[in-house]
Amino acid sequence: MRKIMLLNAKGGCGKSTLATNLASYYASQGKAVVIADFDRQGSSMEWIEQRPQDRPPIRGIAAWRDPVRVPRSTDYVIMDVPAGAHGADLTALVRRAHTLIVPVLPSPTDIRAAAHFIHEMLLVGKIVRDETRVAVVANRVRENTSLQNTMESVLGSMKINYSTLNTQIYHNLERFLSRLKIPFIATLRESQNYLVADARGLGIFDLTRSQVARDLEQWEPLLKWLESKRSIPEPAR
């Protein structure tokens, strides 16, 4: 059973959107999928309630209220975590997951907050011992927009050697992550397709492929990473 968690200390970064779309992808592949929604707002649970019966089923658990008990036949548990988790609460949440995905918005405030949050996560023992793997996703990025100069001003004080990756928008965030050996996996654009799908209890993987071809292309690096050994923690000793 694979356990994947979407989290970030700052709200509004698209955790629920990534969680529901990731769940819809695995469901479309014939996998048994459960979404555990730890956020009292219940966005992921509301999405499941809207999901049409003729689509691959996804089970939901209101994890902020009910015990997270999933059938043994479950292939993937996708965990949607609320903003603001810190300290002991963060530690308890991280211990539930094999893989952590941190979505980050392209703004100085969000990138600064993500840097602090990632530092805090690294203090959690499981991550240090490679029992949990972490990756970052740039989310809701406006295409043809470069914020490189802004990022220099935000994180420019971090003089870190790095190997340049193939994106400009998160240029300096990549420097920071490279130093920590945390992969910067994918850049997902701001697209109306996510809103159209969400309103119907669907993910972009449920929509007509020609309609969402560009979005599906941007998901490929993330899905490839999740299917690779790099995203799977080493067995506990």
TrEMBL record:
CDD domains: ParAB_family (cd02042)
Domain of life: Bacteria
Pfam families from the UniProt entry: CbiA (PF01656)
Domain CobQ/CobB/MinD/ParA nucleotide binding, chain residue ranges per copy: 4-154
Membrane-traversing stretches: none
Protein name: Cobyrinic acid a,c-diamide synthase
Provenance organism: Sulfuricaulis limicola
